[in-house]
Amino acid sequence: xxxxxxxxxxxxxxxxxxxxxxxxxxxxxxxxxxxxxxxxxxxxxxxxxxxxxxxxxxxxxxxxxxxxxxxxxxxxxxxxxxxxxxxxxxxxxxxxxxxxxxxxxxxxxxxxxxxxxxxxxxxxxxxxxxxxxxxxxxxxxxxxxxxxxxxxxxxxxxxxxxxxxxxxxxxxxxxxxxxxxxxxxxxxxxxxxxxxxxxxxxxxxxxxxxxxxxxxxxxxxxxxxxxxxxxxxxxxxxxxxxxxxxxxxxxxxxxxxxxxxxxxxxxxxxxxxxxxxxxxxxxxxxxxxxxxxxxxxxxxxxxxxxxxxxxxxxxxxxxxxxxxxxxxxxxxxxxxxxxxxxxxxxxxxxxxxxxxxxxx
Amino acid sequence: xxxxxxxxxxxxxxxxxxxxxxxxxxxxxxxxxxxxxxxxxxxxxxxxxxxxxxxxxxxxxxxxxxxxxxxxxxxxxxxxxxxxxxxxxxxxxxxxxxxxxxxxxxxxxxxxxxxxxxxxxxxxxxxxxxxxxxxxxxxxxxxxxxxxxxxxxxxxxxxxxxxxxxxxxxxxxxxxxxxxxxxxxxxxxxxxxxxxxxxxxxxxxxxxxxxxxxxxxxxxxxxxxxxxxxxxxxxxxxxxxxxxxxxxxxxxxxxxxxxxxxxxxxxxxxxxxxxxxxxxxxxxxxxxxxxxxxxxxxxxxxxxxxxxxxxxxxxxxxxxxxxxxxxxxxxxxxxxxxxxxxxxxxxxxxxxxxxxxxxxxxxxxxxxxxxxxxxxxxxxxx
Lengths: 360, 382
Description:
A: two-stranded parallel sheet; B: alpha/beta; globular
């Protein structure tokens, strides 16, 4: 097996945080799931509940598999199943990374270079991510912990700067149509982020209590999200709900003394976050293949995954309508639940039964 | 070796970026826009742009001796986008909207085509929604192209004039995102300052005058309120920072400088009506007190002045409310939003039944004024 390396739970926390903030706040999800305006600020809390459920599955499977990860665990019992699972999980990471790249391009081509063709830039980004993924999860973890600090400061700075513009009247009443739309929308959001899914694969490469880290991450991110959504709503009101890049819109408004263009700071940080997200997902794909197939060659595997990401990007980024359709497809919901809960639970139950039979 | 490869790769990437499809525009190829004025006439948009004259500025050793720092252009088109596109044809430069300080609409254009015009600035990639928004009393072209003196940018002057709300409280300050937010609100009436250009009394040239606030209804109707009523609007909506008022007492006339002011608004819905209580607390200094006796002010005098000032301010608020809200049903005070937050069902019913907000709303005003300082003169004995 190739040496993938190990990172601490704190570094993993940073990686997951950066990946999630870029997934959820750079781009407003297309409104395939309806939510009343006022309920947006509450979204983070039900999302937290859904994610705690997902993390319960992770904690359960990790306990059963001895932190081995589901693919590594099944390999001892069935090499074929482990190979199939490795391919399935890698394909899901390719999908999420491809969508992440398309989202990044959508952002750059809208606010930075609207009249430019960015294919070459994306190829350079993917080449850099390919290179970073080969450096292993430790390098990505270290870079993330530094970037997490920078991002944290930037977000706090921006939120403080716009507080002067906060108007209570800009908020909208909550739960005007009951809990149902809020729960539906929160579920829709919770299945569109790959972070928790990666823990099924990266578990053997994390030092420390993964379950505790996952819960802390979920709670911390939900609180941060609630604050960001509340400030966004109080500052931009209806206008903000209309924006495709809501946090960017907020930073355009932010001013702090002589600092008037805070959006440029955030744009720079986001470019780095995108780089971390794609590098991490390529690396996780390599890890999955490695767990499923045993000894694999790192460079060809990474190349294959990067080529897959480029393909997904090319297929989904043509127009904003195609991208929205790809992101909001209901197939994603089903696939996510299968990968997040159904397969890990099936693997755990199957191996448990086998264990019992052997004991008898 | 690895470091050398890394350096080589970075240099390659930098060089390749020029052929990477990313449009790289030099600064002198950009028309840096300072102010935008839009009028609508005979079915066509007339866009007046004030841009930094980078060609002239670069011709002499120092830009001060250049013929002019800025230059104005007029473009026409069936849509704003079409008019903006002709900028490059005329100037040979690519417009850079992100530096623009102010967007001014001609009064009739704002009245007739407000949402059509705003869509460009809400949607276009390079525009920024923190740009200031105002309407011209006559035409926007007159405002944006006004000659304020050599090497003086109209954008700069207009921005500074609108920003004076901090000191006077008699004009509104409306960045575009705030205006858009109220345009998109269900019951809100959006508002912005009205700019007028007049001749300078002593020199050849123009100067800015802020002649009140334009309030827009949802039905393309609009009214202009006076600077005094604007002060009322700013006080009710808790936006006023400083300013001054004059009060007349039996002992003399005092000028009160507003040091700080806070307004709290509470709403109660009962029996199909909404009851608002607007509580205003203001602290003022007295920099001037004109009286025949040329004496200092006693504690009782300051109390009398505070009482009279509170009455005067209540009057300003009441006048503003009756002109804007009760006579015209313009909700520039976010009353609708507050009702919605307090009692959504009541609000939804009101909207559903097309009930005029002003017909079901009562506003009670409580004003308290406190005199903080009386200037350099000692407090007189009673």
